[in-house]
């Protein structure tokens, strides 16, 4: 796995279960296309007022290209989702936990 260069945080307001339900079609397209643009991983969490998606990318350009991809944009529109509040940050340090087995 490539080391992440950028993390993006997208927030969607609303009932988390409703937002997750709307996201199913978007998730299908996004999971198929993410590697094309340097996507490394995606984590979806419930927040106090909706859903947050945390994505790691191996390059900043890919993050933007994914957001501009016509198929992604169409999936978001078809799902009736509002544009997310999205921000990107440069990764300074990234660690993963190692699990030692005996």
Fold blueprint:
Elements: E1 6-13, H1 16-33, E2 39-47, E3 50-57, H2 60-68, H3 70-78, E4 85-90
Antiparallel strand pairs: 1-3, 1-4, 2-3
Architecture overview:
α1 packs antiparallel against α3. It is globular and about 35 Å long. Strands 2-3-1-4 form a four-stranded antiparallel β-sheet. It has 102 residues and is of the alpha+beta class. The protein contains three helices and four strands; from the N terminus they run βαββααβ.
What is the radius of gyration computed over CA atoms, rounded to a whole number of angstroms? 14 Å
Report how far apart the termini are.
Answer: 24 Å
Strand content: 25-35%
Order of helices and strands: EHEEHHE
Number of strands: 4
The 3D shape can be described as: globular
Please list the strands of the largest sheet in the order they lie side by side.
2-3-1-4
Secondary structure category: alpha+beta
């Amino acid at each position: 796995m490539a080391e992440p260069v950028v993390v993006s945080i997208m927030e969607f307001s609303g009932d988390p279960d409703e937002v997750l339900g709307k996201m199913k079609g978007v998730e299908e397209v996004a999971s198929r296309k993410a590697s094309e643009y340097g996507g490394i991983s995606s984590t979806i969490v419930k927040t106090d007022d909706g859903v947050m998606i945390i994505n790691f990318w191996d390059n900043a350009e890919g993050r933007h290209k994914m957001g501009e991809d016509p198929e992604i944009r169409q999936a978001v529109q078809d799902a009736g989702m509002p544009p997310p509040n999205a921000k990107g940050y440069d990764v300074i340090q990234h660690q993963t936990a190692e699990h030692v087995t005996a």
